[in-house]
Amino acid sequence: MSDSRSLLLVSLSLLAIYPAIAGIVPPVLDNGQRSASSLNPFDTSNYGKLQLDNGLARTPQMGWNSWNFLACNINETVIKETADALISTGLADLGYIYVNIDDCWSSLLRNSKGQLVPDPKTFPSGIKALADYIHGKGLKLGIYSDAGSFTCQVRPGSLYHENDDAELFAYWGVDYLKYDNCYNLGIKPQKRYPPMRDALNSTGRTIFYSICEWGEDDPALWAGKVGNSWRTTDDINDSWASMTTIADLNDKWASYAGPGGWNDPDMLEVGNGGMTYLEYRSHFSIWALMKAPLLIGCDIRNMTAETFEILSNKEVIAVNQDPLGVQGRKVSSAEETGCSQVWAGPLSGGRLVVNLWNRCSNSVTVGAKWEVLGLDTSTSVSVRDLWKHENMAEKVAGALESQVDPHDCKMYILTPTTSHSSI
Ligand SMILES: *[C@@H]1O[C@H](CO)[C@@H](O)[C@H](O)[C@H]1NC(C)=O
Ligand SMILES: *[C@@H]1O[C@H](CO)[C@@H](O)[C@H](O)[C@H]1NC(C)=O
Ligand SMILES: *[C@@H]1O[C@H](CO)[C@@H](O)[C@H](O)[C@H]1NC(C)=O
Ligand SMILES: *[C@@H]1O[C@H](CO)[C@@H](O)[C@H](O)[C@H]1NC(C)=O
Predict the structure, then answer these.
(1) Which residues contact 390 (CB under 8 A, 6 or more apart)?
(2) Which of 43, 224, 251, 289 is spaced 20 to 30 A from 231 at the CA atom?
């Protein structure tokens, strides 16, 4: 074919940015140029093909989890109050619908029938009553167990009890299971995680399956067929160092995410006090772009206005929940310092999301050239700033550039306004 060379070049340049589409040949115009619609250049029918087919996680899950703020200090009162707060703050309406109980809900021992038992001191009404309460508000309830002999806080684990425990969860009306990795007897996760998938499926209840094996055995390579999301890293903590480290580690697996199964760089720390406002805004911007689960980890009964402003940014949430479901990636990083970083990815409707991120402590100019974004040099775009909620410019061409404060992350949507394919 006469245009095979240009086809190859186009494919290579796209692959450099979107390795998610390895093997998928992007559409090429007759003259060998990428069209503006090739911003969204690939056949999305391949997305989700390798993913668990339980109908869930078409977009990343959103909700709240008890661990980051409360750790083991949980009880049915605080879970109910949190559900109430999701409603009263309006966060539920924005998509935060899962109320997920983490470790420590269970008694130290199973009952005489071998069943898990909610701790009678902290969950005296039981999980079924709690699920009814949560469902009554239009929300969904998540619970936690472990693919080992104990949970991390040494409650009974579900290894070799998968069917019994899944049945109990389904009977209680649980909608989501986070499945941890402690006390795993050194058995490969590829052996320990599928039995719970099958047990959940056998209950007939649709239950979101969140795999938490800390990224130890490269779960992106096998977990798509097993769970709806898989942790890619060790636990996050409430610091800039942890958040940035985890973002970089999660980025490596971008090509394996898609509708039905997502990389999980762990829950949000926004609002827990260990980072500044701009750092939390970066955290939220990058998690949204990476199609990470948006699981709030702070006390939403008592949020500051700044915390609420971050978590409730509809435009940023819309990037995370975009139906195209392609994980954005780091596409450039200032070579020596790594200070100026560009993270980007395609969105539905031929749009692009672009984050300009300053990872250092001096103000810098961060620029994204069209070639780095996979845009044709002749394309001009309109630019929307998702934190200012303003349209910045109608016809930008060649590059997008901005002064970015230390640890800040600007977030833009680029919409092509021209698509020159003239020769
Ligand atoms: C429930 O947990 C919350 C959060 O840790 C705590 O403030 C509250 O005192 C607890 N309530 C009861 C009744 O134990
Ligand atoms: C069980 O798995 C089958 C095959 O993947 C799927 O079609 C079905 O929806 C699943 N059911 C539940 C309850 O997850
Ligand atoms: C938080 O994570 C960072 C980066 O991984 C690590 O250096 C630090 O020791 C952690 N802090 C705590 C309190 O665990
Ligand atoms: C609410 O949060 C503030 C810090 O933002 C804290 O000082 C206060 O103790 C919290 N109140 C409750 C009831 O937790």
Answers:
(1) 384
(2) 43
The CA 228 to ligand 2 mean position distance, Å, reads 12
Q: What is the pLDDT along the chain (423 residues), one digit of tens a residue?
A: 333 333 333 333 333 333 333 333 333 323 333 333 333 333 344 455 678 989 999 999 999 999 999 999 999 999 999 999 999 999 999 999 999 999 999 999 999 999 999 999 999 999 999 999 999 999 999 999 999 999 999 999 999 999 999 999 999 999 999 999 999 999 999 999 999 999 999 999 999 999 999 999 999 999 999 999 999 999 999 999 999 999 999 998 988 899 999 999 999 999 999 999 999 999 999 999 999 999 999 999 999 999 999 999 999 999 999 999 999 999 988 777 789 999 999 999 999 999 999 999 999 999 999 989 989 999 999 999 999 999 998 899 999 999 999 999 999 999 999 765 433
CA-CA-CA-CA dihedral for 232, 319, 303, 238, to nearest 10: 30
Q: Is 180 a catalytic residue?
A: yes
User: Ligand 2 in contact with 225 (CB < 6 A)?
Assistant: no
Residue 235 is among the residues annotated as catalytic for this protein: yes
**What proportions of the chain, in percent to the nearest 5, are helix, strand and coil?**
35, 20, 45
The 10 Å CB-count burial string (b at 16+, else e) for 152-175 is bbebbbbbebbbbbbbbbbebbbb
CA of 302 to the centre of ligand 4 (A): 6
Bridge pairing between strands 176-180 and 208-211: parallel
Helix and strand numbers, DSSP H then E, in the chain = 12, 16
pTM for the predicted model, two decimal places? 0.90
